[in-house]
Amino acid sequence: MLDRLRLEETREALRLLGVEAPTGRTTAQRTLREAFAQFGFVRQQLEQAPPVARSAFLRLLHEGPLSVEQLLGRGWWARGMLPTPLDWLQRRAFVLVDDAGRVVAVREAREGYLAGAHERPDTADDEPLTGAARLSVEPAGAVVICEDADLLHRAVALAAGRLQLVAPTVAVSTGSPASVVRALREANLPLVEDLQVAASSSQPALPDRVEQAVGPQGIRALLTRAVAEERQVRLDYYASSRGGVATDRVVDPWRFVDDLLTGWCHLRTAERTFALDRIGRARMLPAAITHRDGD
Question: Rounded distance, CA 210 to CA 12, Å?
Fold first, then answer.
């Protein structure tokens, strides 16, 4: 994204960041990238930012591109420089304005900020260890893997997920897998299990995809296969056949007889029976059942 900056913009950003600016555009942009990549550099710079500017940058990390009105509560009709205090970020190349007029966190600045959350400077091999130095071993309750670095960085920026990068495509959390999934869903970040395909009674189940069905015939075929393959199902289940309140149920299916599904309901933590005519949608999950009949 720094490629979009003109030479004078790049040079001003370097000057404000306290870095000597080369004369050439390509060299200046490389110098700016290297500055952002330095351990703790972006975070140190943001400590000097106006509070509103720093808060806006963190929102952009978490939520993605936003309008000036969303960030400041007021509109912006100009072109070029952003209003105060967003101009503090823009002049230092922390943010840009995209073609839709939204404020965007520059990728290199975003990566530099997130890297400062989990990395430590390399220690020279010949540097003696101090007596106070200790290794810290922390629990990891969940692991998140994503080939898209931008998407993974957005996940790491979520405070509720308690995620830390350990590799370009891997992050770990001290929270449970369920709590991390909940945090990602609340932020509307896509999960693998959200990649859904239509269920088929003649095709084998896909081990890494959710298969979904609506309507009595499709749901009947899906539940029959879920019982046979011992895979969990997720149901949109209504309080009555005429509608009513819908609940989201994850169920370990045991038996499906006469349009009645019996199994372990994870919401109620007990055995339950579900009538086909009250199921609005059924999804067969990749996960195998964890409770068996009689356990």
Answer: 50
Give me the residue label for tokens 């003696």: 128
Question: Hey, where are the domains in the chain?
Answer: 2-115, 142-190, 196-288
Report whether CATH 3.60.15.10 matches the domain 196-288: no
DSSP codes of every residue in 158-207: -GGGTEEEEETTEEEESS-HHHHHHHHHHTT---GGG-EEE--SSSPPPT
- The torsion of the CA quartet 52, 58, 63, 65, rounded to 10 degrees, works out to 70
State pTM to two decimals. Answer: 0.44
| pLDDT digits 0-9 by tens, 59-116 | 888 788 888 888 888 777 666 788 888 999 999 999 998 877 888 999 999 888 887 5
Hey, what amino acid is at 107? R
Q: Which one-letter DSSP state was computed for residue 2?
A: G
HSE, CB side, 13 Å, CA atoms: give it for residue 215. Answer: 5
- Block residue for tokens 């309750």: 141
Pair of tokens at residue 184: 């990602």
Reported as a single tens digit per residue, the pLDDT across 216-253 is 888 999 999 999 999 999 888 887 655 567 788 889 99
Model pLDDT, residue 124: 39
Helix locations, the chain, DSSP H: 7-16, 25-37, 41-46, 51-63, 68-72, 86-91, 107-115, 149-156, 177-186, 216-229
Find the Cα–Cα–Cα–Cα dihedral 230, 231, 236, 242, rounded to 10°: -20
Report d(CA 17, CA 34) in Å as an integer: 12
CA 103 to chain centre: 20
Quote the CA–CA distance of 230 and 96 in Å, as a whole number.
50
Q: Are 292 and 254 in contact (CB under 8 A)?
A: yes
pLDDT range class, residue 286, cuts 50, 70, 90? confident
